[in-house]
Amino acid sequence: MSEAAAPLRLTRVGEYVWEIPRQGGMRVPARVYASEKLIGEVADDPALAQVANVAHLPGIVGHALAMPDIHWGYGFPIGGVAAVDADEGVITPGGIGFDVNCGVRLVRTGLDAAALVPHLSRLGDALFQAIPAGVGSKGAIPKLTLAEQKQLLAKGARWAVARDFGRESDLEATEERGCLAAADPGAVSETALERGRPQLGTLGSGNHFLEVEEVAEIYDVQAATALGLHLGQAAVMIHSGSRGLGYQVCDDALRSMGRAMERHGIRVPDRQLACVPLRSPEGQAYFGAMAAAANFAWANRQVMTGLAEQAFSTALGVGPATLRFALVYDVCHNVAKIEEHVVDGRRRRLCVHRKGATRAFGPGHPELPPHLRPLGQPVIIPGDMGRYSFLLLGTAGAMAETFGTTCHGAGRVMSRAQAKKAGRGLDLVGELGKRGVTVRAQSLAGLAEEMPWAYKDVADVVDVVDRAGIARRIARLRPLLVVKG
Amino acid sequence: MGTRSSDVGPFVREIEHTADRGLEIEAPTLPLLFERAGLAMLGLVADLARVEPRERRPLGVEAEGREELLHDWLQALLVALGANGFLACELEVETMNGRCARGTMRGEPVDPVRHDIHTEIKGVTYHQLAVRQTDGGWWARVIFDV
Questions:
Q1: Which residues of A are annotated as catalytic?
Q2: Tens digits of per-residue pLDDT, A332-364?
Q3: Is residue A1 predicted with pLDDT exceeding 80?
Q4: CB of B122 within 8 Å of any CB in chain A?
Q5: How far apart, in Å, are the Cα atoms of A111 and each of A108, A319, A389, A408, A464?
Q6: What value does the mean pLDDT take over residues A229-247?
Q7: What is the distance, to the nearest Å, from the Cα of residue A390 to the centroid of all Cα atoms in its chain?
Q8: Contact check, Cβ <8 Å, A258/B127
Q9: pTM of this prediction?
Q10: Which of A260, A284, A286 minimizes the C-alpha distance to A271?
Q11: For residue B21, which residues of chain A lie inside 8 Å, CB to CB?
Q12: In chain B, which residue's Cα lies nearest the Cα of A137?
C-alpha cells in the first residue's frame, strides 16, 4: 500500500486505547480508541496506516486520533481527528472531506411513536415528496439568486430560520449556533456556487437519510428529561451535509493545495492529505470557503427540518402546537474549527480537524448554551437503518484525551459492492418491514449498499466511547420510518 | 464516434473499498482510457442504458500530469451533472496531450422519473489515484467519495 512505508506496530496502552508509536515521518504517535473486537475488524485495513499518515501533518499536537468507528477513507481514515497548532500548523481538506459539515440533527416531537405507526406509510410518502433526495433532484424551494446564496453562506442556519424554516430556539441547539463566523463567501468558486444553488433543502444519497424514530431506551432519566426526551416519544433524525457546494469547495482546495505544497516545502504520504499552513493565503482562502460550506450545510438541515414539519402537518392533519418540533441538537462530523484545548498543561489555540468524528464538549464548557452547560454537549450517533441510533453527552474525559471529540456513527464493515451482492435476491424493503421499519427510497441499489449488515453494530462503537469516558450514553432510538436518497 | 456506455463493462473492475467506490480501468490508448473511465464513473451514478445521446456538449480540461488530467476530466463530468444536471452516456476524446484533454459528451438532462439513479458521487479522490502504461496499453485506478 502507498500509505505505509513500514509495517505498523500497534501497542495496547489502555483498556480501549491502542497506540501506533512514532516511526518514519510521523511527528506524533497515533492512538485508536477501540475494543479488541473492533480493533480486530480494522487490523488488516488501510485505515490504521491512514491514522499514521495523519501524524505526518506539520504542526500536529498530542496524538493523531481515531475513534472506534474507524474505517478506510481517503486521506484521513473515517473517524480520524487531528489537532494542529493554529499559528504554526496546516489545514488539510483531507481531514474534513468532500462533504463539509456533513452532520446529524435530532428533533424531538410532541407525538407518541406508537400512535404514529398506523400513519407511517402516509407520512413516508409526504416526507419523500417534501424533501428531494439525490441526483437530478431540485430543491424544494426556488433556486436562489447569487445574492441570496451569498447571504446564506454568511449566515448559516439563521438564514433559514429568518425564512420560517424551524424556530429561533433551534439556533441555540446547533453547534456554533449554526454559523461559522470565519465564512468568506467570496472565497467560494463560481463552480461551487453553481453546484449548490439548486440544492438547498435536498437530502443527498449514500448514507444520508431522514428517519422518524422512537425513543426506545433511556440510560440517564435526569439528562434525557433535561433534553425534553421520554420513552415512547417520536423524534426525527436528519443526516445530510453541504451537497455539491461543499464537494466542490473541497475539490478546488485539493487542486490548489497540491500545487502550493511544494512552495511551502511540505511533503505528505498521500496526495489526499494535501495541506498548507493555516495562516498562508491558500490556507485562509480554504478556511473561509470551508466555513461558508459549513454554513450552507446548517442552512440545508434547518430548511429540511422546516420541510419535515410541514410534511408531518400535511400527513397527520395537525398543527405546530401538536407536533411541538424542537431541536435537541445538531452536530457536524466533517469539519475543522479553531478551538482552545489544554495540551501538556498548556492552553493552546488549535485547528481541530474532525473527519467522521463528533465534537463532544464536556459539562461547563463556555461554548455551550446555558441550557446545555450543566449537561455537556449532546452527541448524535446514527446507526444503521435496521437497528438503532444513540444520543450521548460530551464528557470531561473527552476534553482531557481527545480534544473534546468522540465517534460519529457505526462505521462500515462491508464494501458497497459486497453489500449489494449480499442483498441480491432479497426483498430489502420487506426485510426492513419485518423489523418494523417503513422505507421510502429513490434507489433500491443505493438502499442495498446501506443495509444493516454493511455496518458494525453501533452499540459496540457506543459501548467503547462510553466505557473509555469520551462520551456517555443517554438514550437509544429505534427507526420507524426511513427516507433515503 | 467515441465510446458508448455499453462498450465499457469488460474493461472495468470495481475495487473493494469499505466506505467508498473504486474502479480499475484498462484501455489500449490513453484517450480510450479517459472515455471508459468517465462512463464507468457515471455508470455508478445511474443506469446509462436508459440515458439517450440527445445533446452534444464540449468537455475539456487542462492539468499537469496524467493523474491530475484524469482527475479533472472525471471531475468535469461530475460538475456537468451537479451544476447543469447533464448526464453523459457517450464520450469522445478528440485531442489529448500530456497537459490537456478535449472532446465531447453526448447525453441528456437528468430525469429522475425516466432514469434509474443509483447514487451520488461527491468527489474524485487523489487517494491511490494512478494512471500507468502497461504492456497492453493503459491502466488507471480511481477512488470516489460517495
A1: 408
A2: 999 999 999 999 999 999 999 999 999 999 999
A3: no
A4: yes
A5: 9, 12, 19, 27, 32
A6: 97
A7: 14
A8: no
A9: 0.95
A10: A260
A11: 416-417
A12: B112
